[in-house]
């Protein structure tokens, strides 16, 4: 199937079958799609936390807008962004890049110096707003990969970030949660939206052509 056909197939699942689990092979493919997502300056300013442990999911339920999806899905992916830019984080990424490419460290120092000048004096909340936006690119690719695998999903911002951050102790990793992705297989009887027609605004309202 083509990408467009796969995207037409998927929908935001509202109820998952707790008895159906997604294979680790498919979970890894979904995560790999997120890992390969483009990011600003190639910094990969976020991490993906994969949760299949039922006890952990139960702890996260109190902060979920759809607690049943949190409990019943096979896996929860948490997209968590850097809480801020630091000199050490920028250097770590570019040192790794130059090492992998067989280049001397500092090869891109003029560029990294520019990044530090741009970000390091900005307020934490401004920098977090920027790092968090990077996660949505990865979320979109993960959703597309899941659709290709015919694995059901639901992206979610309807949760208490404080609960997720505390349960997963994200502050110790310098991260803050941004969005979730529930992964599993739909419960055909409870997923009330599945039989409904998929609706998007018409193309002529969606696209503004400038010629």
Automatic annotation (TrEMBL):
Cofactor(s) listed: FMN
Domain Nitroreductase: 8-185
GO molecular function annotations of the record: oxidoreductase activity
Bilayer-crossing regions: none
Pfam families per the UniProt record, alphabetical: Nitroreductase (PF00881)
Keywords: Flavoprotein, FMN, Oxidoreductase
Keyword presence, Secreted: no
Domain of life: Bacteria
Keyword Oxidoreductase: yes
Family of this protein: Belongs to the nitroreductase family.
Protein name per its UniProtKB record: Nitroreductase
Originating organism: Tenacibaculum lutimaris
Lineage, uppermost ranks: Bacteria, Pseudomonadati, Bacteroidota, Flavobacteriia, Flavobacteriales
């Amino acid at each position: 199937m083509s990408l467009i056909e796969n995207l037409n197939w998927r929908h935001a699942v509202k109820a998952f079958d707790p008895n159906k689990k997604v294979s680790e092979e498919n979970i890894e493919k979904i995560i790999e799609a997120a890992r390969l997502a483009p990011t600003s300056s190639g910094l990969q300013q976020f991490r993906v936390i994969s949760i299949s442990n039922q006890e952990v999911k139960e702890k996260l339920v109190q902060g979920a807008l759809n607690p049943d999806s949190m409990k019943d899905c096979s896996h929860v992916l948490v997209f968590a962004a850097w809480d801020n830019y630091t000199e050490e984080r920028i250097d770590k990424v570019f040192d790794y890049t130059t090492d992998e490419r067989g280049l001397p460290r500092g090869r891109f120092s003029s560029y990294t110096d520019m990044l530090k000048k741009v970000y390091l004096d900005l307020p934490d909340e401004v920098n977090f707003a920027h790092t968090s936006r990077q996660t949505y690119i990865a979320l979109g690719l993960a959703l597309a990969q899941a659709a290709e695998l015919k694995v059901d999903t639901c992206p979610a911002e309807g949760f208490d970030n404080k609960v997720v951050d505390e349960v997963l102790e994200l502050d110790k990793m310098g991260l803050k949660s941004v969005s979730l992705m529930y992964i599993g297989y739909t419960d055909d009887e409870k997923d009330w939206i599945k039989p409904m027609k998929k609706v998007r605004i018409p193309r002529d309202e969606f696209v503004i052509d400038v010629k």
